[in-house]
Amino acid sequence: MNIALVIAAGLELLAMPNGLRPTADAWQFAGLGAVRGLTIGPIENLRHAGRGYGSPAFERALDEAVQMGATWISLTPFGRVADLTPLGIDMCFEAPFEDNRAAIAQAVAQAHDRGLRVMMVPHLWVESGEWRALIDPGSDAGWAAWSDSYRAFLLEWAEVAAASNVDLLSIGVELRSWVTTPRVELLQSTIAEVRGIFPGLLTYSSNWDDAELTLLWDEVDVIGINAFYPLADHYGASRSELFAGGRRVFEGLERFANDQKKPIMLTEVGYTTRRDTAIRPWEWPDGMVDVVVDEAAQAEAFEALLAPLTESPFVAGFFVWRYYADPDDVSQEAEWGYSPRGKRAEVVLRDIFNSQLATDGEPLPGWIGGRHRARSPWRYGWESSPPLFVE
After folding, report:
1. Which domain holds residue 206?
2. pLDDT tens across 226-239, in order?
3. Does residue 363 lie in a domain region?
4. Rounded CA gap, 163 and 174, in Å?
5. Using an 8 Å Cβ cutoff, are 245 and 307 in contact?
6. pTM of the predicted model, to two decimals?
7. To pair with 332 at 20 to 30 A between CA atoms, which of 40, 44, 129, 176?
8. CA distances from 327 to 64, 96, 170, 189 (A)
9. How is 39-55 classified by DSSP, letter by letter?
């Protein structure tokens, strides 16, 4: 079911136009089901023809998502900026914009054909390799020009999202220097324009450490957080220490959701496949040296973070970071990268995806006793749960 159509039907629990009712457990009572999501990243189309969004290779990725138990996917079309003082956004990314637009539309249709819902996340690629959260045009005039450029970028993708019946749209990703300052007003007017184009629900993908500083939660329907939370502060942390870290994250998110009176969605959650990944999970795998590949560490980090959240009515769901449009293309990241495909973490995620989650509402048909009997932490208690893998 397309969320835009749910809203248009005027269901009582979706009482406000283009939005959920203002409570932390709104998603649960809207009857939309918990989001079990996979982010499927693009393949660079010019270098890998016929293997990006909308291709037969992408259909294989979707089939794997369905088999895994995912109910949503996230698509990340990119715009390109040169550095942290951008003059504008290049709508072309590895292919002309019109080609990318058509590919995204085809990808959405392919996902919907398989019963998957779709979140679109227009993303910024900084050519200098620096973090988009630190963009600073440097002056009032520069910020005004940047705002105009971003407005054009976002409205273009909002039109694609509307025409393709996308279910959820993120209006930005990790724009800390903008949305945690008074300059957020420059973006608020653009969000209002997006509302006039796109009839579905809106979110914004904040970084995990600035979500509570973000000033535009009143403008969106669901709080989005890129959840690369550290679960420990020292090497060699034990399983119980990691699960205690996950519990701390849970408690913080619960307070925040209740303060904001809105549900939270983890718009990205990921851990790399390396030893002690839970300490600094945001560190990008490219350029790392002397890495010890550790599938168990990745799997355990996913368990520790997601276990308490799956029982939480204030968490709408999560999107795993990430798979790729061609599931067989292993050139997109190193062996110790974020993808859980074919690794121990995939077993953990399959278990979560196929379990009854708090925001599902009524148990799904065929589940014994109203709950899938998974060997998972939320079945046994977080701290005492046995590991899925024993060395």
Report:
1. 22-380
2. 999 999 999 999 99
3. yes
4. 26
5. no
6. 0.90
7. 176
8. 8, 23, 24, 39
9. EEEPP-TTTSTT-STTS
